[in-house]
Fold this sequence. Notes:
Number of helices: 6
Radius of gyration: 19 Å
Strand content: 5-15%
CATH superfamily: Winged helix-like DNA-binding domain superfamily/Winged helix DNA-binding domain
Amino acid sequence: MEHQTENELGRLILRLANTIIKNRNRHLQDLELTSAQADSLQFFLAHENATVTDLKDEFGITHQTARGIVARMAEKGCVTLKKSEQDGRCQIVTPTEYGAELGGRMKQNRMRTGGKLLDGMETREQELFIRFLKQAFENVKND
């Protein structure tokens, strides 16, 4: 591969990633969620009976940060909190019906973005594209 192509490849991938992030942030703004709240909501939707500590451990953040995210989500009506019956120091975080609705809307946004990324590609091309992206990620993730 020519050095010019290698240089342009990194820039193109960076532009693509930045565009996806910008679009995601715009979609989340429409839902009145920050990206941290959206990621946390997805976590709680996928992990029944999870606690603030579980969120902290999953994302490698401080307990105080996790508590703040969950408190703001509760204020927005996305989740409810209740003390754990096994350990009164822990609070179980449960998505509300509204939180589940937001989760569904976020999934629709992800599906739309994924569809746009694959638009115009045949099934075999889509499979190769995904395989190549995974390989490229593995190649650079610990560089």
